[in-house]
Amino acid sequence: MELSNPSVVRELLEKYGLAPKKGYGQNFLINPRIPEEIAALSRAYVPSDRPAGVIEIGPGVGSLTQRLTEAYDRVAAVEIDRGLIPLLGEVLAEYGNVRVIEADFMKLDLPAFLDEQFGDLIRDGGTVSVCANLPYYITTPVLMKLLEAFPPERPVPFGSVVVMVQLEVARRLAASAGSGDYGAITAQIALRCRAEKRIDVSPGNFLPPPKVSSAVIALVPHGGIREVYPGAPQDDEACRAFAEKVSALIELAFGQRRKTLVNALSARWPKEETAAALEACGFRPDIRGERLSARDFCRLADALR
Length: 305
Ligand code: SAM
Fold this sequence. Notes:
The protein is α/β, with parallel strands linked by helices. Helix content is about 40%, strand content about 15%.
């Protein structure tokens, strides 16, 4: 079944007695060009000569899922809304390489899920990506879950994470240190991935149209915290503790972003200690967290006892 225009999507929802649910962030893509572009972009990040799988979060009525089943060897689509499951069964009936799993993505044990759905493909040298038009009410928790479910001393085990988010969030994720859009999530993600803002999508491409503009962002995992900061501990356990310290530092620094770092960190590190660490790193004593890159936060964490 081709979801090629808005009236097909409307009729389909009607047939199953459904209407888009605001509480689940349901804004369905109705311009077929967009899912095509997103699936192609996602697939472009993984080698073409190896088996490739993809996790989709929130397949909705299946517009992006259809394109992903064509681009990938295997698709595992996780949908929270029970009402959509039979509808997806019809829309995806002709594809043999997709499984729809009724679950709340936030409650999944991600490493176990990866192994269940893609263990054989990974053992055959394949890669797994994540691709989604994310429900906007949980964008940041979803992204943090994707990145934090795995040990920070190794690369995040995804080919790429290509997701549609609010334009504002896309700008934030791809921002450079010191710019107005830069935030805790930017630095947290930069510890694990390179972020590229790719496709702008206006509200008219969705049913119903959201109040905000959207953009597709590609997060491409790099070698992990030791690549960002070669001074990170070589021992895995020590590296994990170091990564936790860096994360805590980032959260404190942006929790009170108007304050200087010396003040923002004072709940955990005495002011004289922070001042000495800043000096050792060559930063100004009155610097704010928003000027520090992910690597700078690592240097500071290293200098702070
Ligand atoms: N992929 C479809 C598209 O592009 O048209 C739908 C995208 S819609 C923005 C978000 C989808 O995520 C909805 O289908 C919604 O029911 C689903 N969703 C919301 N919260 C979820 C969660 N916690 N776990 C899994 N799916 C969720």
